[in-house]
Design a protein that fits this description.
Pfam families: Glycos_transf_1
Number of domains: 3
CATH class of the largest domain: Alpha Beta
Protein name: Glycosyltransferase
Number of strands: 20
Keywords: Glycosyltransferase, Transferase
Number of helices: 13
Structural class: alpha/beta
Distance between the termini: 57 Å
Organism: Paucilactobacillus nenjiangensis
CATH topology of the largest domain: Rossmann fold
CATH architecture of the largest domain: 3-Layer(aba) Sandwich
Radius of gyration: 28 Å
GO molecular function: glycosyltransferase activity
Strand order of the largest sheet: 1-2-3-4-5-6-7-8-9-10
């Protein structure tokens, strides 16, 4: 563990002035400013970064340290206080990647190149980050190359590797993984503008060997809209562990009566304020109804999410019925005490929280939203799917369920049963179908490498 006293500034007789409110030390020598040392916000005060200053008080370099204690990045500053050169180092302090920022002919400041210092001593120069990234994937593909079967590349956030995987030197089995709605408007999957994360790969969908969606509905929509030649696979992105499956079922009578649960990021697109409205409408007929929300608060857009939530609480006088809690590690323990899981999102890619809730005997009351909730919940069996944005109908379902203990238990039992769809063995079966498709003979003609090296006359 690296602390401020372990740093070597090349001079002695240093003084360290701690500024705890800023999580840093000011380092001086005979009143001359040497450095600012910023530390991680923990009791150990591990070094986070070091800002170094010259004899005139000018910042000339900032070193960033990995949590494990080694310097991972150095940024060298220009006289006009811009980052001129950046150097990334490995755990042994060896410079591996460098990038340079300079003014061009139009006096525009930006990156002009990248340098890679390879393990074998070779030095590679690239004009942009895309060429460097492509080189990385080519090296990775070559390192694990086999003449019997292709390497499998599964790209999730496709904007980080979409172009690169389609320009590899050697063949590879390339998979596009749709972890969210492919449409900007999830309720109009056939005509909406595309989700910007997937616009490039879906435009080039036929250059991929396979496309993975988490739900059958999304796989069908992708097939209907884009008509890709690549294989489509439906593989859930969540798994119910065997340990959860083996736990005893908790009957509804042993749970908190009237308790509705949400475990999610507190974000406007999660529609938690709409759930609160449904609670407010239902409370007249279900006096003991309550809502517990566990999750981080997203503070974007001037706290839009929590502002809407507080407004809904105030409108329906739910100060004693709605409870906003912080993130908890043992979500299962919370789910085994609640009865209904509510969901009113604008869009989803699957919704792991709903899957986890149903595996713990809760059942869902959800908007008919793409994708995931309207497949995790089988309408009328392990919950209800209400029309999108229909808060009144959600409230009616709360009333119907909480006033019918037998129906509550029936749906809870069915939730346990339907969770089998996401048991480890069943999800693994879906993955094996893709792996079988990928296990094909390799057709590859390598580049000429013999006879073109040293052509000097002997």
């Amino acid at each position: 563990m690296l602390q401020v006293e372990d740093l070597d500034f090349g001079v002695d007789n240093l003084s360290y002035a701690k500024e705890p409110q800023s999580n840093r030390y000011i380092v001086t020598r005979n009143k001359q400013f040497i450095a600012r040392v910023n530390y991680f916000d923990d009791d150990a005060e591990r070094v986070n970064s070091v800002e170094l200053f010259d004899g005139f008080g000018n910042l000339y370099r900032v070193d960033f340290y990995d949590f494990r204690g080694f310097k991972s990045l150095s940024q060298w500053y220009t006289p006009d206080n811009k980052i001129g050169t950046e150097i990334w180092s490995d755990v042994d302090g060896r410079p591996v990647i460098e990038t340079y920022n300079r003014y061009d002919g139009n006096k525009k400041f930006g990156k002009t190149g990248w340098r890679l210092n390879a393990d074998n001593g070779a030095v590679y120069m690239f004009s942009n980050i895309d060429d460097l990234t492509l080189h990385f994937y080519d090296e990775l593909n070559a390192k694990y190359w086999s003449d019997e079967k292709e390497n499998i590349f599964i790209v999730d956030r496709t904007h980080l590797a979409d172009w690169h995987l389609l320009h590899l030197k050697r063949p590879a089995y390339k998979v596009m993984h749709l972890h969210n709605s492919h449409a900007g408007d999830a309720q109009d999957p056939m005509h909406s503008v595309m989700n910007n994360f997937y616009e490039y790969p879906l435009t080039h969908a036929n250059d991929y060997n396979a496309i993975i969606s988490a739900t059958k509905k999304q796989s069908a929509d992708v097939r209907r809209r884009f008509k890709p030649k690549s294989r489509l696979f439906t593989i859930p992105v969540g798994v119910v562990p065997d340990a959860v499956f083996k736990q005893p079922q908790v009957p509804m009578s042993d749970r908190t009566p009237g308790k509705v649960l949400v475990t999610a990021r507190i974000d406007p697109e999660k529609g938690i304020d709409r759930i609160i409205e449904a609670i407010g409408i239902a409370q007249k007929d279900v006096p003991n109804i309550s809502l517990y929300v566990y999750g981080y608060i997203d503070h974007r857009n001037n706290d839009e999410a929590i502002t809407k939530i507080n407004k809904a609480i105030k409108k329906y006088h739910l100060e004693n019925k709605v409870n906003i809690k912080e993130y908890v590690a043992d979500v299962g323990a919370v789910q085994r005490k609640a009865q209904i899981y509510a969901l009113a999102s604008v869009m989803e890619g699957f919704n792991l929280s709903l899957m986890e809730a149903t595996s713990n005997g809760m059942f869902g009351v959800t908007y008919d939203v793409n994708y995931g909730p309207n497949e995790l919940v089988v309408d009328g069996e392990n919950g209800y799917i209400v029309p999108f944005n229909d808060t009144e109908m959600m409230a009616k379902k709360f009333v119907e369920l909480f006033n019918n203990p037998d129906l509550l238990q029936e749906m809870s039992t069915k939730s346990y049963e339907l969770s089998e769809r996401y048991f480890e063995k069943n999800v693994w079966k879906a993955w094996k179908r893709l792996l079988t498709d990928a296990n094909k003979p390799v057709e590859y003609v390598p580049e000429i490498t013999h006879g073109i090296g040293d052509q000097r006359k002997k």
